């Protein structure tokens, strides 16, 4: 089951090495010396391309990587990355030996998981101890321990297991990107009580995603899990101002595959929902919802030669149509995300129109669109 990458089509995701490097360096400059930055490269580096982004992040000073699933960590190891890797989502305990062999740390949210992983590891010859990070559910309601006495008992159990190495403890905030910090503070207090219950402080105590690292700088601890901001996107959307300049790493570009003059009244695309209001130049862009350019983007726009061009008619699976201000031939550049002349379309603009967040637009771009590193 592979989505073929359309390398011969002009539709591309361009990824700026310079922007990612800049964003990481800005973040690093604000961390104290003991705080490490782990680059969050889950979901194909939020749609920017796992291996390329991992390389850029490593060169820019990241000390490790966070991924969502074990397979993403294995892909990094297969590509010979040797920095520490932490999986953020719960992995079946049966997979503990594979993670241990590849030196990939796993999160743990209950003692039962530890007991099962311990049995699996003990039954596997020549496997090193598995690094684990105790997940604390301080109010996100997703994964992790919730009560101090329960985490204390689990940590004590892990201490007795030669198969397990408690390397970290962490939590995740639900509202770090909001101006009102009252819920954040509640979660923070809950986490501190959980940390205090441990028999000893693990090497990595970490609580910060991008938003926390930007707007709650007192809580950096030993590591930040730096995701969306690395890609130059503001975690809060438009709500809070970034403490440093962010450079968006992603552009989405294409070229007109076809262009024609349609007479007044001519219909465009499925359902014939659009009719030319007069004689109109209509261009076809070779990208569609199978590429992650959602159907609901009908009525949004792209840029051609510095001009805003409306997306007319329904977005198809592989193509959509735009209204051009005048004749432009097939082969003309089209900017879907990025700058053209004085105009710019950001992932935030696309997300606003699609009634979602930029995270979802970026990681919704499918494998059919090649990722190309520039500068
Ligand atoms: C995805 C994720 C992050 C990164 O979040 P950003 O908002 O992209 O910085 C950090 N921690 C956990 C647990 C995550 O799941």
TrEMBL record:
Q: Which residues bind substrate?
A: 142, 317
Associated pathway: Amino-acid biosynthesis; D-alanine biosynthesis; D-alanine from L-alanine: step 1/1
SUPFAM superfamilies named among the record's database cross-references = Alanine racemase C-terminal domain-like, PLP-binding barrel
Q: What enzyme class is recorded for this protein?
A: isomerase
Q: InterPro entries from the xrefs?
A: Ala_racemase, Ala_racemase/Decarboxylase_C, Ala_racemase_C, Ala_racemase_N, Ala_racemase_pyridoxalP-BS, PLP-binding_barrel
Active-site residues, as the UniProt record annotates them: 42, 270
Q: Which GO terms describe its biological process?
A: D-alanine biosynthetic process; peptidoglycan biosynthetic process
The GO terms this record gives for MF are: alanine racemase activity; pyridoxal phosphate binding
Pfam families xref list: Ala_racemase_C, Ala_racemase_N
EC number, UniProt record: 5.1.1.1
Q: Which reaction does it catalyse?
A: L-alanine = D-alanine
| PTM sites of type N6-(pyridoxal phosphate)lysine | 42
Against HAMAP family, the record matches this protein to: Ala_racemase
Protein name according to UniProt:
Alanine racemase
Q: Which organism is it from?
A: Lacticaseibacillus manihotivorans DSM 13343 = JCM 12514
Its lineage opens with: Bacteria, Bacillati, Bacillota, Bacilli, Lactobacillales
